[in-house]
Write a structure and sequence with these properties.
- This protein has 277 residues and is mainly alpha-helical.
- The protein has two domains: 105 residues, no CATH class; 156 residues, no CATH class.
- It contains 14 helices and two strands; from the N terminus they run E-H-H-H-H-H-E-H-H-H-H-H-H-H-H-H.
- It has a two-stranded antiparallel sheet with strand order 1-2.
- The N and C termini lie close together (9 Å).
- Keywords: Membrane, Transmembrane, Transmembrane helix.
Length: 277
């Protein structure tokens, strides 16, 4: 999932120096040649080589690197300095200058955008935990322990015991102010599902669901057109929310929850493409 970015590239006008130096050198060469200066060609060559170095530096400054532009000083050296069959005169200099000017514009237009970096699902989970700190800020250790144990016993398929622990946790939530509505609904959603499993039945039309008011406290937030199964989405959000609250409020269960973190990561990964969209 690509959500992080590096800093954007330089906003300078360094690329303008590429045509200025390269074609400027050719212009000086023509001027010197018109007065019969025997080494006039070196002015044009120097301009092309210097401009290629400027292009290389311009490309190096960008967050995304263009390898062709980075190697233009080498091409200039091979064309103009190393003896070869090419005539390093005005025609070759002009073609080379036009090429590196094109590359300079290309680098500025295409390689100046920030480079996307892919976040891991663990990073996304940690950011989610940081984001919902107000949800668990008022949760005491005993309530947090009940929440953590509710999730763990559910994960171990001890559905009857899980439902009992959730009922106990819900009773303690009633005394908390401000009332953590999203957390209460997460427990109700999971308890309803656990109760169904305990009776060997699947809850097809659940009574308890998250509301619009809970949206900011959920890890998996999708557009309506992206939701294929609202009940499954509510269950997954409930599991992630209970994990986040449990691991932050119950130090006694932290290690056990971390051992089952992969379970939560897999839930998030199943929504990776939709979250990226």
């Amino acid at each position: 999932m690509k959500t992080n970015t590096t800093t954007s590239g330089s906003k300078s006008r360094l690329w303008i120096a590429v045509p200025a130096v390269s074609f400027g050198g050719i212009g000086i060469e023509l001027l010197l040649a018109s007065v019969g200066f025997p080494y006039a060609i070196w002015a044009g060559i120097a301009g092309c080589v210097a401009a290629s170095c400027i292009l290389c530096y311009q490309a190096y400054l960008k967050p995304r690197r263009d390898l062709v532009s980075l190697f233009t000083p080498l091409f200039a050296f091979l064309i103009f300095v190393v003896p070869n069959d090419l005539d390093p005169g005005v025609l070759v200099q002009t073609i080379f200058s036009a090429t590196i000017v094109f590359l300079a514009v290309r680098v500025e237009k295409l390689f100046n955008a920030p480079k996307a970096e892919e976040k891991t699902m663990k990073q996304i989970l940690n950011e989610y935990i940081d984001r919902i700190e107000p949800v668990f800020a008022a949760i005491d250790g005993e309530t947090g322990h009940l929440i953590a144990q509710s999730l763990l016993t559910y994960k171990f398929e001890l559905y009857g015991s899980a439902a009992e622990k959730m009922t106990a946790a819900l009773a303690r939530l009633d005394a908390i102010t401000p009332h953590p509505g999203a957390l209460e609904r997460a427990l109700l959603i999971l308890r309803e599902r656990a109760g169904g499993f305990a009776e060997s039945r699947v809850t097809v039309n659940p009574e308890h669901t998250f509301t619009e008011a809970d949206y900011d406290d959920l890890a998996i937030r999708l557009r309506p057109d992206q939701i294929d199964d609202p009940a499954a989405l509510d269950l997954d959000n409930a599991l992630v929310l209970l994990y986040a609250v449990g691991i932050e409020t119950s130090p006694d269960d932290e290690q056990a929850l971390e051992e089952h973190q992969r379970f939560i990561i897999q839930i998030l990964e199943s929504y990776k493409e939709k979250l990226a969209a």
